[in-house]
Amino acid sequence: MADGFIYKRVLLKLSGEALAGDFGYGIDPQVVEDLALQVREIVEAGVELAIVVGGGNIFRGMAASANGMDRSQADYIGMLATVMNALALQDAFERHGLFTRVQSAISMQEVSEPYIRRRAIRHLEKGRIVILAAGTGNPYFTTDTTAALRACEIDAECILKATKVDGVYDSDPKTNPNAKKYDTITYLEVLSQELQVMDSTATSLCMDNNMPIIVFNLSVPGNIARALRGEAVGTTVQ
Asked: How far is it, in rounded angstroms, from Cα 237 to Cα 60?
């Protein structure tokens, strides 16, 4: 492939928190701008890119549920938050000359297309970025599970999980200075050690379908391209 990328079609999983940057809430325009530059580099080189974005920078369904809100209602609100993030990403990407489509699992035809698998694949084949919003459209499923499901559906070759840390550790590196970082780890080790790379449903789905997950730090410029070249920028779950 062009520029030595070892993957042709990938799914990028972005957390809502990553979009908030140092703000802690909402969308940091600089984070979105930096992301657009990284994405343009790989898409112009021929990589087919789908994105699943979370909504935790705007609303966290699990937290609201823990505080007494009906879980299904809280999850639907969280899905709407992901649509806001998807539209913000679309705006940033298109300002950089990238063709983008937002597909939502909840019908809202004024701002997005419905998620249709074959249409999503066709967009990818035409070089468009597909941003997949509103999770699976069902409560009780996280955007991690959405990422695993959609990656399998569109025949992606790997999931890039963009986070605020540089990989998977055996304990929290913020609280344990002796935490050990893994270069590679198996799905079963992630599940048995409860390492919170993705939730257990998402991890199991990736394991059942041999979908590798690359966990890396989004805030380092160029890390997306490095991960796609096979450089050791984080942790590979396989």
From this structure: 26
